[in-house]
Automatic annotation (TrEMBL):
Highest taxon of source: Bacteria
GO molecular function per UniProt: GTP binding; magnesium ion binding; uracil phosphoribosyltransferase activity
Protein name: Uracil phosphoribosyltransferase
Source organism (scientific name): Allosediminivita pacifica
The EC number(s) this enzyme carries: 2.4.2.9
Positions contributing to 5-phospho-alpha-D-ribose 1-diphosphate binding: R80, R105, D132, P133, M134, L135, A136, T137, G138, N139, S140, D201
Cofactor note: Binds 1 Mg(2+) ion per subunit. The magnesium is bound as Mg-PRPP.
Entries under NCBIfam families matching the protein: PRK00129.1, upp
Reaction catalysed by this enzyme: UMP + diphosphate = 5-phospho-alpha-D-ribose 1-diphosphate + uracil
UniProt keyword DNA-binding, yes or no: no
One Pfam short name: UPRTase
Record-annotated Phosphoribosyltransferase domain positions: 7-209
Gene: upp
């Protein structure tokens, strides 16, 4: 994957995202749509995975059939909203290894502080896909990616639903080697760090909290 930012251009993605943005969309619909859209985004972010062949036997004859090369992927959910994207992707890639990074923002320093970190072994040999629906200020995403690098990950991609120009820029400066795949690039951040037009708080909308 060579582009730093890929905005997935597909009518199904665009349509589903529009319904998710609408403020009156129910929690159940939001969750279902997030699941569906995550399959389409996962399809896109894995499009260039290296493939090799292996010898198999069909009921008809032997053949050299394509199979994904290398160690199993690592999917890393950035808590808590990352879990909404993770569930869908796991339907498509059920053998992936899964990790979690939990960060909260210190109210005084405004810096991200880690409260949970558990990732698969041998990250250095895996394609590592970090997932978080909203790339807003980029502070927690940048910190989470740094933690993954500190744990050995060398080939990292970042998957989100919505990105802000500010967040993309921040990631590009901090981690130019980490390609971003998103369903849409929105206009800007507001003074509270929310993406505009956005969809509100992704975690609240998928979990029905306020
Ligand atoms: N996190 C969200 O859930 N929504 C935003 O708009 C920004 C960050």
């Amino acid at each position: 994957m060579t582009d730093h930012l890929t905005v997935v251009d597909h009518p199904l993605v665009a349509h589903k995202l529009t319904v998710m943005r609408e403020k009156d969309t129910s929690t159940a619909s939001f969750r279902q749509l997030l699941r569906e859209i995550s399959l389409l985004l996962a399809y896109e972010i894995t499009r260039d995975l290296p493939v090799t062949t292996k010898r198999i036997e069909t009921p008809m004859c032997p053949m050299d059939a394509p199979t994904i090369e290398g160690k199993k992927l690592a999917l890393i959910s950035i808590l808590r909203a990352g879990n909404g994207l993770l569930d869908g992707i796991l339907e498509l890639i059920p053998a992936a290894r899964v990790g979690f990074v939990g960060l909260y923002r210190d109210e005084e320093t405004l810096e991200p502080v880690e409260y949970y970190f558990k990732v698969p072994t041998h990250l250095e040999d895996r394609l590592t896909i970090a997932v978080d629906p909203m790339l807003a200020t980029g502070n927690s995403s940048v910190a989470a990616v740094q933690k993954l690098k500190d744990a050995g990950a060398k080939d990292i991609r970042f998957l989100c639903l919505l990105a802000s120009p500010e967040g993309v820029q921040r990631m590009k400066e901090a981690h130019p080697d980490v390609p971003i795949v998103t369903a849409a690039l929105d206009s800007h951040l507001n003074e509270k760090g929310y993406i505009v037009p956005g969809l509100g708080d992704a975690g609240d909308r998928m979990f029905g909290t306020k």
